[in-house]
Amino acid sequence: MSVTRGRLHWVGCEAPGEFDVAKVFLSYSSRDRELASIIAARLEQAGISVWWDRALLGGDEFRSAILAQLRASSYVVVLWTTHSVRSQWVQDEADEAKSAGRLIPLIHADIQISDVELGFRQLHMLETSDIETLIETVEKKDAAGNIGSLVARKKQGLFLKVMKNPLLYIALSSTLLLYIIFPGFLLGLALGLGFILLLLLWASS
Question: Interior CA angle at 133 toward 37 and 101, to 5°?
């Protein structure tokens, strides 16, 4: 199970300290601690690091530690139960995660979606008993995020190559200019490709 090292700026402290960033932040009501423990244990068995308030160490500033982990984790799993739907703390954590696009809500069988606070009901919710689907969801989101990062890095690499190569930069800039000047799409494309070909032939000679 991999854990990322991060930098934590404690509220009221001058010097930052290091902390472990978990993949999943678990938000729940303290009255559902047993359920949270089961879910956290199953996620960790699957190799997914989890942070919940049981991970607080002696001397940690409660609010600072929770806020830092909430904002640093990749996903926030919220357990909606008869207790947590009445918890302002859980609702605040869920709202923070939703705004960041990192919320994965779970709903207990004892409540209905209509029991959940307005603003969260439109999200697809997994059942708290279906932990396997939760694991699959986290893994799929991770895979999609990795692919997106790879594509972004490749695009950035291509942009840098073009910017560092005067011939490619001139060719692509000229092609764009031809698209703007000539209203005919095919004519602009043909002229642009012809210009690039001439530059490449000139460069190779």
Answer: 85
Stated as kind and residue range, the H or E segment containing 28 is: none
For 101: left if phi > 0, alpha if psi spans -120 to 50, otherwise beta; the answer is left
DSSP character at residue 120: S
The confidence score (pLDDT) of residue 81 equals: 96
Q: Helices marked H in the chain — which ranges? A: 33-45, 62-72, 88-99, 131-164, 166-181, 185-204
- Beta carbons within 8 Å of 40's beta carbon, 6+ residues apart: 26, 50, 52, 54
Tens of pLDDT, residues 26-77: 999 989 999 999 999 999 999 999 988 765 554 446 677 788 888 889 999 9
DSSP string, 154-186: HHHHHHHHHHH-HHHHHHHHHHHHHHHH-S-HH
Tell me the one-letter amino acid at 108.
H
Nearest one of 153, 152, 175, 173 to 162, comparing CA atoms: 173
Backbone angles phi, psi at 170, to 5 degrees: -65, -40
How many CB atoms are located within 10 Å of the residue 45 CB? 11
Residue 144: the pLDDT is: 73
- Amino acid sitting at position 79: L
> Quick one: pLDDT band at residue 111, thresholds 50, 70, 90?
very high
Task: Specify the residue for token string 């002229």.
Answer: 191
Identify the pLDDT of residue 17. Answer: 46
